[in-house]
Amino acid sequence: MDIADRLKLDVPVVQAGMGGGIAGAPLAAAVSAAGGLGTLGLLPPGQLKSAIATVRDRAPGRAVAVNLLMPFIGRRHIEICLESDIDIAVMAFEIDRALIQRLSGEGIFVMVMVGTEDQAAEALAYGADGLIAQGREAGGHLVGTVAQADFLPKALALAGSRPVFAAGGIATAADTRAVLDAGAAGAVAGTRFLLTHESGAHPAYRQRIIDADSTIETTVFGLAWPARHRVLPNATTRRWCRPDGSARRLPAAINKFSAPLSRIPDRGDGALLHLQHPALPFLTPITLTADMPAHWAERAALYAGDTALRLDRVTSAAQAVADLAP
Ligand SMILES: Cc1cc2nc3c(=O)[nH]c(=O)nc-3n(C[C@H](O)[C@H](O)[C@H](O)COP(=O)(O)O)c2cc1C
């Protein structure tokens, strides 16, 4: 199988599915129209259906990919993916054997994002068609536990003939070439695509990435989803993170007991962020989108990978694909 043909790619560059309104149809369609693979991030089911239709319309002849952010995926999301006949599903943050088999059985190419050898072996045993090997330097939520360059060879060794894409640390064409030389089928970038006109990120958030000189691995923005994530520092992390990035005791305890809340359907409008404040230890994973006030940058999770230290401009999505093309 030629993976570029199977995924309808001109260049081996994938835009990561980013939830919370960052990677909607405008971004995914622009990336795919430019010859890469755009991926829709988590959306409420009502919006997912029309977003898939928009990508199809704006990027004709390209594959349609949807990120399945598993803690927040409901039955309706899956029905819409099947009804809409998507081409690719990217499963992340839980590996669901029955779902892999169901989607695969319907002809959908199923990729699973993994960060350890155990996760990779599990995804492969359950029938994943490909892997995304995430390194710990990645932005957003982390399955990655070691640097991408260290994990990629291990994932490749397990995957055999199945394709492995590398995520984390991808900011330039040289980064893409490095992962291809190491054996990857392509490069997956999130933070670079957040710095595009088509992403849903607030301009103040983009500027903070451009100005960044550090990132933090933490669990502090863990209300309803107490998983590790990489963010930029802000007033909230300064108040509630220890010097090593870990969450202080109070938010850590609240986050731990809030995990079942992830099953409450997401309204997708960031309404809870109104109530969030850097002085209070109730810290949701909601990020800063263009429709919110700029000063919420001090309360929201500003997800970014270590590439933030190297990235210095906002471009069109097509330019980002061109910049990353090997
Ligand atoms: C703002 C943001 C949101 C993200 N949201 C998701 C998500 O919803 N689902 C997912 O599988 N990965 C998500 N990720 C992680 C990406 O899949 C990818 O692993 C990561 O962006 C790669 O690292 P990079 O940002 O340094 O390029 C997100 C990343 C960022 C930066």
From TrEMBL:
<keyword id="KW-0560">Oxidoreductase</keyword>
<dbReference type="Pfam" id="PF03060">
    <property type="entry name" value="NMO"/>
</dbReference>
<keyword id="KW-0288">FMN</keyword>
<dbReference type="InterPro" id="IPR013785">
    <property type="entry name" value="Aldolase_TIM"/>
</dbReference>
<dbReference type="GO" id="GO:0016491">
    <property type="term" value="F:oxidoreductase activity"/>
</dbReference>
<protein>
    <submittedName>
        <fullName>NAD(P)H-dependent flavin oxidoreductase</fullName>
        <ecNumber>1.13.12.-</ecNumber>
    </submittedName>
</protein>
<keyword id="KW-0285">Flavoprotein</keyword>
<dbReference type="InterPro" id="IPR004136">
    <property type="entry name" value="NMO"/>
</dbReference>
